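LOG
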Amino acid sequence: MIHFFKKPVSHLALPEKFTYPFHYTPHPLCVLAAEEVKEYIASRKEWQEELASGKMFGVLIVQTDNGITNNEENQIAYLAAFSGNLAGKNLHPYFVPPVYDLLQPEGFFKIEEEQISAINIRIRELENSSSYLNSKEKWKIETEQAKAVLNQAKAELKMAKEAREIRRQSSPEFSEEEQASLIRESQYQKAEYKRLEKEWKKRLEELETEVRHFDIEIERLKTERKERSAALQRKLFEQFRMLNAQGEVKDLYTIFEQTVQKVPPAGAGECALPKLLQYAYLHQLKPLAMAEFWWGDSPKNEIRHHGYYYPSCKGKCEPILQHMLQGLEVDENPLLNPVHEEEELEIVFEDEWLLVVNKPAGMLSVPGKAEDRDSVYHRLKKKYPEATGPMIVHRLDMATSGLLLVAKTKEVHRDLQAQFANRSIKKRYVAVLDGIVLSERTGSTGRIELPLCLNPLDRPRQMVSREHGKEAITEYQIISESERITSKSENTFNESNRIDELERSINESRKYTRIIFYPLTGRTHQLRVHAAHPEGLGCPILGDELYGKKADRLYLHAEYIEFRHPIYGDILCIQKEADFHKKYD
C-alpha cells in the first residue's frame, strides 16, 4: 500500500503544515505522486470503461518513521485511494482499503441489503401485478360511471320536481287526491335515488376493498423497508470508526450529531481523504500533504475536469475531517487572510446618493457569517456612517473583481434593487478562459441557458439541475484566442504557490480565450458554471479553483454597468478596465 517515489525527491522541501483540504494548491510531492497514480490508472485497461464516467482519486504524502526503511530518501512515500468503490470492489492492491468494507460477502451489510432488495422486488411485483392494476382500473372506471349515473339521476329528480311545480301552478284547484299523488311520486323518486346511490356505494366499497388489500400490503412493505434501511444505515455508519492524529476514535453518527443534518449522508466515510488518513494513522505513518484529482468525464450536474485537482467536499467530508485532522498542524484557510487590508477601496463614481466601487479580487462584498472579516460593506459603512439601508445593492464573488453598485440611502437601494429585479440594469464581464472554446460548437457569440442551484453536499459549489435549479441565462462574445508561452517570472503557477518544475512544465504552453459575458440573470457562480460546464462552454475561467484550476487569481472582472439614476432619472454608464486586460491579448 505504501509507494516510494520512482524519482528522487530529496531536493523538494517538505511541507511545514498539513494541507488545508478545502482550499489548497497541491504540494510538489503531491503532484509527483498524482502523476505516478495516473500512470497506474491508465495502465489498467479493464477499468477504463468504468472510469470514463468519472471518479475522484487522492494521494497522501507520508513520512515512514516506523522502521520500514533506513534509507532517508525512502522515508517520504505516498498512499493512494479512490472514492466509493472501483470495479464492484473496495479492495485493490495498489490502493488503501476502505475504513469499513461494506461489500464483504459475509458481512451484515450485504446480507441485510439482500433482504431489503427482496422487499423491493416484492413491492414491484405487487405494484405491477395484473390483479392490482385491474382492480385499480375497474375501481376508477366504475367510480366515474357511478358519478355519471348519479348525476343523471339527480338531474331527472330535479326535472320531475320542476314538472310537478308547473302542474301545481297551472292547476290551482288541485284535489287532495292529486296533491297526495304528487307527494307519493316525489317520495318514490327520492327513494329510488337513495337505493341507486346505496347500490353504487356498496359496489365501489367492494372494489376499493380489493385495491386497499394491495395498498395495505405495499405500505406495510414500504414501512418495513424504511425501518430496515434506517437501522442498516445506522449500524453501517457505526462501523466507520474514524481515527485522528491524537489516537481518538469517533464513529460517523457521533461525528455528524453536531451538524445541521444530524445524520451522515449516503457515502460518508467513503471519500479518498478519510480512507488515506485512516490508513496512515493505523500504520503509524505521519501525514504531510494531500491532494485529490478527478479522472474521466464530468458528472451530469457537477463540474469536474479530467486530471484537475479539487478540494475535499464539504457535505460529506468537512465534519469527518474536522475530527480526523485534530492533532495535525494544518495550514490556515487562505480565504480568511485579508489580502487588501492596507489598500484603499477605489471609488469609480460617486454622488450624494450612490457610488460605484472597483472591488478587488479576493475581497468579500458583504461579510457573511464571519462578521469581522474585511469586506466592501465594512469599508463603506465605516467611511459613510450616516448611510442608511443595506448599502450593497448586488454582490460579486469574493474571487471576482470589478464594479459594485452601492446605495447611500435605503430608498435608493430599493430603487436599484427593483431595477435589478426587472432586468433593466445592464452588466458586462470580461474573462480569460483556461483553454480554447471550439468555434464549430459555439461560434463567436452565443447564449447559455443552464438552470443552477446549490450543491447541498459541496457548498459553495453550484450545480446544473433542470429539476431544482433556477433560471440562469448568459450571453457571450468571444474576443480572441491565443497561445501564450509563459516564463518562470510570468507563470501564474509560481513557486509561491508551491507548484514544482513538473507541474510548471505541464503548464508551459497553454491556450486561452478572451471572452465577454452578458449575464441576463444573477445566480451565484453563474458565469463560472456556464463557462466550465460541458453543456456550456466546457472551458473554465482561468484561476477558477472551484470549477477549474487555481492560478494567481480568478480572471473574471465586472467591467461595465449601466443603470438609471434613482433620483435624476439619467442613464449612467460606468466602466473600469480589468487589470489583466493586456496580459492575454
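LOG (cont.) second protein
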Amino acid sequence: MQKESFNLITDPWIQVLNQTGELKEVSLLEVFKNAAKYQRLAGEMQSQDLAILRLLVAILTTVYSRINENDKIYDGLELDERLHLVKVNRAPSYEQLKDTWHGLYKKKHFSNALFQYLKANSDKFDFFGDQPFYQVTKEVYDQVVPANKKVNIKNPKGTVDVKQINRTISESNNSPAIFSPRTSRMKNELNLSQLIRWIITYQSFTGVTDKTKITSKEKFSVSSGWLYGLNPVFAQGENLFQTLMLNLVFLDQYQEEKPVWEFDSSVDYIEFIKNQTENSKLSISFLYTLWSRILHLEWVNNKPIIFTAGLPKLDSTNLFQEPMTTWKHNDKEDDFYPATKHLNDLNKAMWRNFGQYVLTVSESNSQKAVETHEPELIKWLREIKRNEFLATDMSLTLKTVTLVSDGNATSQSPVAEINDNFKIRANVLFDESGKNYWPAIIEDMINMTQQAGKDFWIFANNISKLRGIDGSEFANNLTAEFYDTLNVPFLTWLASLRNDQERRDKVYEWETELKRIALGRAEEVLQNASPRDIIGRENSDQDEVNGLKNIFTIFNRYKLNVLIHING
C-alpha cells in the first residue's frame, strides 16, 4: 500500500458520482476540470463529503481572491511564483470579487489560474512528501510533543487506530463498535485513498478520546474538530461545479486567504494556532482547512501507525469569517456563537429551524435583526441573487450535514449523522417585499405547525395517562411519527412557493393540509382504541381539567385545539 509519492493533485482519491450514477475516484485536477460532469461528491459518509467540499472551496477561495476569472491578478496585489499573497497595496473591491464569481459561473468552468496554482504548490499536496499533506514529519512531531510522547514504533504512545478515524466505525480500543459495518479483522483496513479521505474528515470531527497534547506554556482545551462545533449549512447545486460555485463565498471585507499548506512550515502553523488571539486574522480558507490534531504516520509492513497530538481550540465568538454555520445570540454578553447539534436534535427536521438559516423578518425590523446573524453563506447567496447572477426562478437546495457526539465531555465520540435539506426558490428565500415578506410568512406557518405538534403531544400524553403509562416516552414517540408524516408535505409546499403567487392562497393551502394531517393522525389512534380506552375511567377533578374521561373526550379536546390554532 505504501508509495514513495502520492500526490493529491494528480493521483485519484476523491470519490464522485458521475452523470450515469457510477462511482469514480478522481484527482484534484480532474475534480476541478470536470466538475460540471459530476453529480456530487460521494464518499463513505455525507459528513466526509462536507469536509472534502470545504477543502475544495478553500482552494477556490484562495485563488479567486487573488486572480480574476480572466486569470489577471487584481491591481494592488503582489503574488510570488507560487501565487501566494505577498503584499496588499490595495485590496480588491467587493464588486470586483462578485464580478469574478459571476464570470466563472457564466463560463461553467474554472480558469487556468486554478490549475497553475495547484501545479505551483504540488509539493504541499504529496501525502508522502517532505511536508506531507495534513501531517507533520517525525522531527516536527518530536519537537512539539512531550518527551515521553515522541515517536517510538516499538512502544507507540499517543496513537489513534484506523478504525477510530474511520467514522463509519469510530471504535476506540476501550469501546468496541457493536454494530460496525466491518468485521473485527477488517476494521483497521483501508486503502490509501480511503485513508486520505478519512484523515481530512478526522481533522474536522475529532472527539477528545486521545490524550496527547502539543507542549505549551499555557494550559488549553483540546479542539474536538472545527465542524463538530458548528451547525453546518451549505448549498447543493445541480452538479458539482454549481455546488462549488454556490459555496464559493466572498465577504464584504477583503480577506487575506491563508490555507494550511501556505504556511512556511508546519511549525509556523502550530505556533500561529498556539498564539492566536485575534480572530480578524482568520480567513475562510484557514477555517476550511483547520487542523484539530497534528498527525504523524509511520509505516510498518505497509500499514500506518498514526501518532496524534491535540491542538488548542480556537475561540469561535463572533467569528463570522466562517460562512457555513448558523449562529446563536448570547443576550447577556451580546455575542454570537456558532450553533451546534445535539442528540436531542436527531429527529428535528431542518425546515423546523428555518429561522436559523434566513432572516425571517424584514431588515427594517432592527431589533430582531440585531438578535439574529444569518450565515454568511446565505448573505452571499442573497447578494448574488440581488445582482441577478442567479436565474429568477432558480431553486436553491440548502443542506445540513454533521456528526453528533455522544455528549460525553471526555470522549465526544460521534454516535449519529444528521443529513437533511430543503428546497426553495431563490426569489422566495430572498424576497424583497415588505408587507408580504415570504420568509416571515413561512416562519409563521412553521410556528403554527409546531403548535399543532404541541397539541398532538398533549393528546398523546393524555392517552398515555388514560392507559396508566408512566413517563413521556409514548407521547414522544407518537409525536416523532407525527412530524415524520409532516416532513414530505411541508417540503413539497415550501418548494412550490413562487414570488408571483397570492400569499393568502398558499397559506390556506398549508393550513388545510396541516389540519388534514393533524386530525388524520389522531383519528388513526382513535381507530385503534382498546375497550379500556373507550370505557375510560371515573373522573377526578384533575381529569376534568385535562379531559381524561375516555379517548373520545381526549380526541374532542385535541380537535378543538387544532381548529383554534390552525384557523385562528
